[in-house]
Amino acid sequence: xxxxxxxxxxxRYRVDAPxxxxxxxHCGNCQKASGSVGTVGAAIAxxxxxxxxxxxxxxxxxxxxxxxxxxFFCGECGSPLYSQRENTPETMVVRAGTFDDAxxxxxxxxxxxxxxxxxxxxxxxxxxxxxxPDAPAx
Length: 138
What we know:
- The protein is mostly beta strands.
- It has one domain (about 1-130): Metal Binding Protein, Guanine Nucleotide Exchange Factor, Chain A, CATH 2.170.150.
- Strand 8 (about 80-85) and strand 9 (about 90-95) form a beta hairpin.
- The strands form 2 sheets. An 8-stranded mixed beta sheet has the order 6-7-8-9-4-3-10-11. It has a 3-stranded antiparallel beta sheet with strand order 1-2-5, with no helix packed on it.
- The protein has one helix spanning about 30-35, and strands spanning about 1-5, 10-15, 20-25, 40-45, 50-55, 55-60, 70-75, 80-85, 90-95, 105-110, 125-130.
């Protein structure tokens, strides 16, 4: 079990499934949402995630992939917590920076590297994808 929450402590959650990998997303939306080089998140089954305290707020927009993405955050401190695609609500991506303890986790893939900031270092041996690995064909 992994526990986590926002910066101010108003929102707390737990994940009742093993987290085995982290993806670093460099898309423009994640850069804006984080105010930095993107987001690092763990994809998990929504059924394994439970809010144990508080109620997050939601912001929805069309992501760089062309899909509607719901981003959930603390309405008090603004901490981004997790996101869900509208078309796949059974999966969610929890922001790894909100985990209480994630010292043993590693980033296994970088996505949207075509939009990565030139001043951000991506380790040369890491798996990389220039866009969304599972984006629909256009």
